[in-house]
Every structure is written in C-alpha cells, then in structure tokens.
Amino acid sequence: MSAVEEIASQTPAVQAVPKRAMTLSAGTAFVIVLLLLVVPLFVKNFIIFQMTMLLIYGLAVLALNILTGGSGQFSLGNSAFYAIGAYTSAILMEQYNVNYALTLPVAGVICFGAGFLFGQPALRLSGVYLALATFALATAMPQILKLGFFEHWTGGVQGLVVTKPDAPFGLPMSQDMWLYYFTLAITIAIYVFSVNLLRSRSGRAFMAIRDNEIAASAMGIDVATYKTLAFGVSAGITGVAGGLGAIAVQFVAPDSYTITLAISLFLGMVVGGVGWLPGSFVGSAFIIFVPNIAEGISKGLSGAVFGVLLFLVIFLVPHGSRQVAMVAQQLLGKLRKN
C-alpha cells in the first residue's frame, strides 16, 4: 500500500454538505423573495439603490464563498475580477453601444477565463501564500487600469461614465427600480446555480479538496482541474457583479477597485458565515450599512466605531450569521414542540 493510499484509508469519507447547511428552506426563501419584490414599491429611489448594491455585493461575496467556503482556497484578489467585469460592461456599453444586458455574460466569460488562468500558477500555492498572491493581484489591478496603453478604452485615471438604462417596453418605473428588479432576477438565477453547483458532483469534489486534498486525490479527483475551475467560477460570478455595479453606480475608475474592496468582500464572507451561501447577502448588508451607522455615531471616529462593532460581531458570533440562523432554527423547533 502506498503512502497516499494509507492516508486515504485512514481518512473518513467526506460527506456532502446537507441542503440546509448551504441554503434556506423553501418557505423561508419564498418569504424573503416576496419581501424583496414588494419593498421597493414603498421606498424612495435612494433606498432602492442601496438594495441594488446589497444584491450586487452579495453576488461578489457569494462568489468568494464558493472559492473559500467551497474549495478551501483563500483569496484577497476578487476585487481585481470585479474591476475587470465592471470595465468590460462599461467599455462595451459606452464605446461599442452594446446592450447592457448582453455585456454581463461577456464580463462573466472574460472573468472566468482570467480566473481560470490565474488559478493555474496558483496551484503551487496554498494557505497564506495563496492569499498573498491574490493580494498582489488586487494591489496591481488599479495601477494596470491606469496604464497609458489601456487609456483609450479605460479612460485612464478619469475613468468612464456609464449611462443608466431606462425600463424597457415603456414600463412605468424609474431607472433605479428597473435596475433593481433586473439585478434581483440575475441574483436569483446565480444563487440557484451556485446552490446546485455545490450539490453536484463538482461541488462535492470542491468540498473534498477543501477538507483533505490528499484524500481527494486518492479518491480519483483531479485536484488541479477542480481548483482552477473553482477559481474560474468564482471570478466569473464576480465579473457579473462588477458589470452590474458599473451600471448601477454609472461610473468606473481605477481607484474604485482597490484592495479595500477586496478586504470588504472577504469581511462580508466572514460575517455572513464561511460556506453558507445565504450569509453572503447578510455580509453584504454589513459592509454597506454598518459603516454608515458608524459614521452616524461619530463622524470623526467612524473607523474606530466600525472596528469596535466588527469586533463585537466576531466575538459574539464567531461563525457569522450562520450561527445566528442555527440558533433561531433550534428555538423555533423547541417552540413547535411545546
């Protein structure tokens, strides 16, 4: 018996993640979707814009969750793929007059290719070293976008202004409301795709690699292919989120996609719960609204207040919103029995 086979024989079989561990129950999901459909009808356009950004950042955090929570690969470079997706949509819309909806799959495909290619050399790295490599990618991307060679397309330091689309077919709704529902439809589609991906054979391979790479290889899983595939899928979803973000904000510039964005996405994943897909949107809400709350408490010390709030969240719920959801589920179960 070889060393690999001996290790594999001593390693317990990796079980597929239960359905409830990855997503919400059908009833809960229905109620949340219903609220997301109804609430914009009763709020102002600014609130609708914030809800749109929550969905967009939620997609980006979801993509990171697939990579880190699904395959166990740490990344601090997803802001680079977000920037590529944003610039792809902006350039196609403003310089080539491509319909905004058609730019999103193009952004996704380009980012999938970029992520897959980046995953090839990253195969030699893991843990902290992989995080540092992706950190370097995120740090370099804003400077790359400022290069004179790309200035004809990217607008250089000044960036590009993006035209927000009107509602089609003469629908009686504002631009913000139409873009929100458009984003919601794409978010639901990608969320369902992500859940099915993690439940599929490829998803089980991701999680096997995450739990024990040597054992996964001994079971016949092509570790190199699945690790690069995870990078590609994560980058592709992030690219779609970046394209939606460019359309929603109506502007792209290199300094909008710095390492701060990458850290925010990683923070959203941790607060939402690593490996729990619904938590991606809870984490998105945290990185959007908590800084505003901190600034409302103290404008001069908003950073310090945000740090204290973040420390309290990590200290009280170290497993993120997933831990809160599990406690709530247990309480509901006890109430039903009583």
UniProtKB/TrEMBL annotation:
* InterPro entries on file: ABC_transp_permease (IPR001851), LivM-like (IPR043428)
One Pfam family recorded for the sequence? BPD_transp_2
Which positions, given as ranges, span the membrane? 21-41, 47-67, 74-92, 98-118, 125-145, 178-198, 229-253, 259-289, 301-318
Q: What does the UniProt entry say about where the protein is found?
A: Cell membrane
Q: What is this protein called?
A: Branched-chain amino acid ABC transporter permease
* Protein species of origin: Bradyrhizobium aeschynomenes
Superkingdom, taxonomy of origin: Bacteria
Could you list this entry's UniProt keywords, alphabetically sorted: Cell membrane, Membrane, Transmembrane, Transmembrane helix
Its topology with respect to the membrane? Multi-pass membrane protein
